[in-house]
Amino acid sequence: MLTILLLAVPLATGLVAATQSWRRWVGWLCTASLGTVLILGIVLATRVVHGRAVSAFSGILRADALSAFMVIVIGAIGLLATAQSVRYLDAEISSGRGTARHATLYAVLVQGFITTMLLAVLAGNVGVMWVAVEATTIITTFLVGHRKTRGALEASWKYVIICSVGIALAFLGTVLVYLAAQHVGHGAHVSLQWTSLMSVSHHLDPGVMRLALGLLVLGYGTKVGLAPMHSWLPDAHSQAPAPVSALMSGVLLTVAFYALLRFKAICDGALGTAFPRALFVTVGLLSLIIAASLLLSQHDYKRMLAYHSVEHMGLIALGTAAGTPLAIAAVLLHILGHGLAKAVLFLASGEILLVEGSTEIDQVRALLARRPALGGIFAFGLVALLGLPPFSLFVSELNMLRAEVTVGLGWAAAISLICMAVIFGAVMSHGRHMLFGARADGEPVMRTASTVTVPLIGGLVGCAALGVLAWPLDSLLRAAAMVVVR
Amino acid sequence: MNNATYSSLLELAAGLVILCAFVTLWRRSLSAIVRALCVQGVALGLVALVLGLHRRDVVLITVGCLVIAAKGAVIPTLLRRVLANDSLNRETSPLVNVPASLVGAGALTFLAYGATRSVVALVPTSAGRLIPLGLATLLIGFFSMVIRRKAASQIVGLLLVDNGIALVAFLATAGVPLLVELGASLDVLLVVVVLRVLAVQLWSKFAVLDLDQLQELHD
Question: pLDDT band for position A218 (50/70/90)?
């Protein structure tokens, strides 16, 4: 019941937005819809935290602790992004770049985007999960191209071509998993149900599963933005409207990663942990190295944030490779912490673009002196993203590294630390350029609207609270990790 | 239908799928390529039909009919509309010339046979033996996306990839569950629509036809 309600809320909001001409209250209704999703996600979490799962439609929808956690991630970051969307749409309309029809389309698409992401994490059937992830690609294409500039259209073209091919490979991987499941013997009827695959995972044919996992990592990995399939990511994330970038970078990547977490659990049963671990270490390290080398020479701050996502997806892949309960709990905490920090930064960068008129790092200077509130949020966001305390990314990165060392991946942890150090230096130098400096003579200190600052500060405080107090999420994280660790 | 007819019909239909993949590399004119894709879609539907008739599986027969309608009629029509906008209806400058690309496709077919050994071993039926052809079609699709520069050619490559995967799915598992199959087909249809919209916008607003012209975004 709860799962159906979760999908119905954004769907119904989207329908309401479609029938109304654009008003500001429609925007706030969309925000309220995400607030409801977050609350329902927390209620769901309290129901499933002790290991039970709830299901609907004869198992097509199924929520366990891992799904509930992902619903909370989607709700929290969606809430930030939709709150900021009102401001984005107001600015587009008042500057004449967009019309009320554009705004309506945008609101409907965002609610559709949220619905498909929720369906992906609530699907009990890996086939339905695939359909939902593919549907996110189709919907977000229009959101990436929403501004209809040449760059935006180019980015959406690359996005849809590369991600469609990737997701097609994931489909082939799913077909092969189904094939292996049909041949487990015992005359047992095996479906694409996630629970059914988990229960027979030890009997799946290893040869076929090896090929399947390779295809799944390539396929879903494309949507996660793991190197070498990441090339669409900086384009799409830098061209999309800021709230959409926040949603794509903060949640969509990790929703695709959620699919990989599920499949890795099945493959660990069929193949043992060695092969999946090698695969995840390879893509993880490759992502880190590519992100580090491309961040050094970045001159566009939205692309800088996009490459930063590639880095964090690499870290998550490494943590998943370690695969202990501690590592997976840290991976999940990292998913939430990175989502919050990245969403705050993308939303702040949207505001910077709005008031400064450029995405070039060179064109933005002395933000802290000229716009203290906005500059401060951007600065604290960077601090959070670079993994400094008190933010939760510090805790999760530390725990992932510890887990990697305990399972004998110390060398990979060392390489990832070197990459993180390089990225730290690069981002600090870009950030220093944008943030520090003195005001020009007679230039006033400019205020930033409280509708912008309040949600963003809220996001940062949330991220810091998660780092200091493990309490509200601790049992949920452990329960969710046990879903995909045996 | 007896076993001999069944397996020869299946081989014929699957063979036609891979043959059409080669034709898309051989021909330069985009309208001829779309015709080849149309034939390929029908052949793919026939694979599902033959399998469905053999197993007396009504769902699979329905899926076969839907595939023929979608890939034999709807998608080619959508693609022809893109070409109607495209004054230069020829792939003028592929990165690899035709004979070399045909040789490359042949090599990819061998690779497909090598890569699917474990899968074929698991399904020792007359359908299972044909699985490598599906993977070969997929690889040829990739190959043509890499070597062709026209926006429309990339859509063609994507459809080849998708048809190859559908062929593997039919031959290996007699089709994934209907719900998933329908979702997958609908998604492909929507992707083609989306790409069509984007191609039309790129052409009408910025006169972009070749992907080499998409150079705005880079590091």
Answer: very high
Kindly state whether B207 is in contact with chain A, defined as any CB-CB distance less than 8 angstroms. no
Taking contacts as CB-CB distances below 8 angstroms, the residues of chain B near A294 are: 219
As a whole number of Å, the end-to-end CA separation of chain A is 29
pLDDT in tens, A149-206: 888 888 898 899 899 999 989 999 998 998 888 888 665 567 888 888 888 888 888 8
- How do the residues of chain A divide into helix, strand and coil, expressed in percent and rounded to 5? 80, 0, 15
**Domain end (from A207, A242, A272):** A272
Q: Residue A161, SS3? A: helix
**The residue to which tokens 């027969």 are assigned:** B61
Q: Which of A109, A124, A139 is the last residue of a domain?
A: A124
User: d(Cα A132, Cα B210) in Å, to the nearest integer?
Assistant: 31
- Show the tokens assigned to A343: 């969403």
Using alpha carbons only, give the angle A342, A262, A385 rounded to the nearest 5 degrees. Answer: 15
* Nearest alpha-carbon partner for A181 in A168, A194, A170: A194
The number of domains in chain A is 3
One-letter identity of residue A99: T
A424 and A448, same domain (yes or no): yes
Cβ-nearest to A138 among B142, B165, B190: B190
Say yes or no: A187 and A332 in one domain: no
Between B76 and B95, the more confident residue is: B76
Q: State the Cα–Cα distance between residues A359 and A428, nearest whole angstrom.
A: 17
Closest alpha carbon within chain B to A162: B158
pLDDT in tens, A225-270: 998 888 899 999 989 999 999 999 999 999 999 999 999 999 998 8
Q: For residues A21 and A15, what is the distance between their CA atoms, to the nearest angstrom?
A: 12
Same domain, A358 and A434: yes
Mutate to test the interface with A, among B118, B142, B213 (most CBs of A within 10 A): B118
Q: What is the DSSP letter of B175?
A: S
The mean pLDDT value for B197-202 works out to 80
Residue B7 to residues B113, B125, B186, Cα–Cα distance (Å): 19, 9, 29
For chain A, the residue count is 486
**Beta carbons of A175 and B165 less than 8 Å apart:** yes
Residue A117: φ, ψ to 5° = -65, -40
Distance, CA of A81 to CA of A61 (rounded, Å): 26
Mean pLDDT calculated for residue range A301-321: 93
Judge if A113 and A225 occupy the same domain: no
Contact B173 A138 (CB under 8 A): no
Q: Are A175 and B90 in contact (CB under 8 A)?
A: no
| pTM of this structure | 0.93
CB contact under 8 A, B180 and A125: yes
What contacts A136, CB < 8 A, 6 or more positions away?
A: A113, A116, A117, A120, A223, A252, A255
Q: Is A56 helix (H, G, I), strand (E, B) or coil?
A: strand
How high is the ipTM of this complex?
0.91
The answer to whether B44 and B184 are in contact (CB under 8 A) is: no
Minimum-distance CB partner of B179 among A127, A137, A178:
A127
Listing DSSP states for A248-272 in one string gives IIIIIHHHHHHHHHHHHHHHHHHH-
- Whether residue A466 sits in one domain with residue A412: yes
Residue numbers in B near A210 (CB within 8 A): 118
Q: Provide the residue range defining the domain that includes A353.
A: 273-486
Q: Which residue of A has its CA nearest to B215?
A: A154
Query: Is A258 found in the same domain as A335?
Result: no
Please indicate, yes or no, whether residues A120 and A132 belong to a single structural domain of this protein.
Answer: no
- Does the beta-carbon distance from A130 to B195 stay under 8 Å? no
Does residue A196 share a domain with residue A277? no
